[in-house]
Specification:
Oligomer: heterodimer
Number of helices of chain A: 19
Structural class of chain A: mainly alpha
Order of helices and strands of chain B: HHHH
Strand order of the largest sheet of chain A: 1-2
Distance between the termini of chain A: 71 Å
Number of strands of chain B: 0
Strand content of chain B: under 5%
Helix content of chain A: over 70%
Largest interface: A-B, 57 and 51 residues
Number of helices of chain B: 4
Strand content of chain A: under 5%
Number of strands of chain A: 2
Distance between the termini of chain B: 28 Å
Largest sheet of chain A: 2 strands, antiparallel
Helix content of chain B: 40-55%
Shape of chain A: globular
Radius of gyration of chain A: 22 Å
Order of helices and strands of chain A: HHHHHHHHHHHHEEHHHHHHH
Structural class of chain B: mainly alpha
Largest sheet of chain B: none
């Protein structure tokens, strides 16, 4: 076994963080108006915006959990997600993007005041801020925990590093820094996964057919095998099962993912703000398509990473006479509990990959976390800044104008800083989360519990002639 | 709208923490031994905690059901409450149905 991270790995990690901060400094030179800081002057290139959207939505939670999910349910999650894509893409591109791009708001929640009332707008803002703080807190916490465990360093140190670096470059560079660092981070995400896939293929002399076969064998043998106490069994999923207690089926995952995607595009400032930053509807549509296709590629890559990890370890397993499967996993993963499965990829990177490559994958993990956090911080700051401006305007002004010439960049920067620090603190407090939940199961029970309410608010607003006080 | 949001959030929470809520209720001896079909009713009705047969030995509800049920509750309650609450008179340009009508918020038409 190779040693855990070496000096060159740490150099890669520090270099990555320094590069992100440098980009924040670089883009801080171009922040003169609110539109510059919050929307990149509404001139952001569509391909960068598209990659930024997927970098924001595909957080380190996905990057960690997807390879581990192959150990839980094989390729079910992936097929479910892919099945959802045509439906959600059609809905978003036909109904949501064109509709919202007509208004050119800065904060998506401005729409709720015109459509319903000021109270509903406030409720939308509260839901978004609560969801984003929880989401970002989760992202910082889970990615930091993974890094701390596999690198064997203190959790608080990692949380502070991830939270503070993301906050500083977002504070300085606004949306431009967020979008362009996201583009770099997507390249890290792709590179990290491809490195791991290539390494397993090269060292074992195998490829997809053998990996797929190993995944099938694992799902066939493990449910009936003797497992140590505390280990969770894999749950190979059916095409559909109407029982709500069956963990996942292809159809239920597809429906759930469709709802998540549609609600996230309908009512989440993090995605809508990206589209508002493009110059017109055509560019926004191109951004959406770019982001969706990049999402398919990244998810496919993570699936293959999961299969490669499974083959790598399972091919070394011994099955004893009493039916116990003994898999020689690395690090602290000897029990293979559900939570441990989320750490398989990260542990493999630190324990097995040559010096430098392990650091690159840790940097990819950081990239996945930071690309979500920066978007969250920037979007929360945008929404709060717009709300503050709203309270300074007269009732007449808000009903007849939706832009303000005055610059609030200085205030927005302070709000950004406060949001970043608050999220960092929230991340640490999430260390009290029940240990038994893996990332996939924890997400709908926490921040994603708010997503359907938030997205549904916009869907009702757009589609129904209901629920507004008489003027 | 606010009622719908509250119902939707209650759905997410009651489904997400189904087992935990069930165990808590049982520990308080409030709902001992409710029939097995209750969870399904809870899924449709969406809301409030207790509905649970969950009380014991029932596994947690799958993560895949939480968001669709929550959204369904919101949309259905929106439709039902629309019979009670009044409409805004002027929705020009603010819904999919009225999107082609003139609206001062739309840049090209302002």
């Amino acid at each position: 076994m190779l040693a855990v991270l070496q000096n060159v790995d740490y150099a890669v990690l520090i270099g990555y963080m320094a590069a992100m901060l440098a980009m924040g400094v670089w883009f801080s030179r171009y922040q003169e108006s609110d539109d510059d800081y919050f929307l990149g002057g509404r001139k952001m290139p569509w391909f960068a915006v598209g990659l930024s959207v997927i970098a924001s939505l595909l957080s380190s939670l996905t990057y960690l959990s997807e390879p581990g999910e192959v150990w839980n349910s094989g390729v079910t999650q992936f097929f479910g997600k892919m099945l959802a894509i045509p439906l959600e893409m059609a809905f978003v591109i036909i109904f949501i993007v064109p509709f919202m791009m007509r208004f050119r708001f800065t904060s998506a929640y401005e729409y709720l005041e015109y459509r319903f009332s000021r109270n509903v707008r406030t409720l939308g803002v509260i839901l978004f801020v609560a969801m984003a703080v929880l989401w970002m807190g989760f992202v910082v916490f889970l990615s930091s925990r993974a890094l701390a465990e596999v690198m064997r360093v203190n959790l608080l140190v990692v949380i502070l590093s991830v939270g503070i670096v993301s906050t500083i470059y977002t504070y300085m560079g606004g949306l431009k820094a967020v979008v362009w660092t996201d583009v770099i981070q997507v390249l890290f995400l792709l590179g990290g996964g491809l490195f791991a896939i290539g390494y397993v293929a090269w060292t074992t002399g195998t490829w997809l057919p053998q990996w797929y076969e190993a995944a099938g064998q694992w799902l066939q043998l493990a449910p009936a095998a003797n497992l140590a106490a505390g280990q969770s069994r894999p749950e190979p999923a059916a095409f559909f099962d109407s029982s709500p207690f069956v963990r996942s089926t292809i159809i239920t995952v597809a429906i759930s993912m469709s709802v998540w995607h549609i609600c996230t595009h309908a009512g989440n400032q993090m995605t809508l703000q990206r589209y508002f930053s493009t110059k017109d509807l055509k560019a926004a549509r191109r951004s959406f398509i770019t982001g969706s296709l990049a999402g398919v590629v990244l998810n496919l890559m993570l699936l293959v990473v999961g299969m490669a990890m499974l083959y790598f370890y399972f091919s070394q397993a011994t099955i004893t006479a009493n039916g116990t499967i003994d898999i020689p996993l690395d690090g602290n993963l000897d029990e293979l509990k559900r939570r441990d499965r989320d750490l398989i990829f990260a542990t493999f990177a630190t324990e097995r990959l040559p010096a430098g490559l392990g650091g690159a994958i840790m940097a990819a993990l950081l990239a996945a976390a930071m690309s979500s956090i920066d978007s969250g911080i920037n979007s929360i700051a945008t929404v709060i800044s717009v709300e503050i401006k709203r309270h300074q305007q007269t009732e007449d002004a808000i009903l007849h104008t939706h832009t303000a010439a005055q610059s609030h960049v200085k205030e927005a920067r302070w709000i950004t800083l406060a949001c970043g620090l608050f999220i960092t603190v929230a991340a640490y407090s999430l260390s009290f989360l029940p240990e038994k939940w893996g990332a996939v199961d924890a997400m709908p029970r926490t921040f994603n519990a708010i997503t359907p309410a938030m997205g549904g608010l916009f869907l009702v607003a757009c589609s129904c002639r209901v629920w507004a006080p008489s003027p | 709208m606010i009622i719908g949001i509250i119902l939707s959030l209650a759905t997410s929470i009651s489904l997400g923490y189904f087992t935990e809520i069930g165990h808590w209720l049982q520990s308080k001896s409030w709902l001992p031994g409710i029939g097995y079909t209750s969870p399904n009713i809870a899924l449709l009705g969406g809301t409030v905690t207790g509905t649970a047969r969950a009380l014991t030995q029932v596994p947690g509800i799958s993560f895949a059901w939480i968001m669709p049920c929550s959204l369904t509750v919101l949309m259905v309650s929106a439709w039902l409450l629309s019979f009670v609450f009044p409409n805004r008179k002027d929705l020009a340009g603010l819904t999919w149905q009225t999107r082609k009508q003139p609206c001062h918020l739309v840049a090209d038409e302002a």
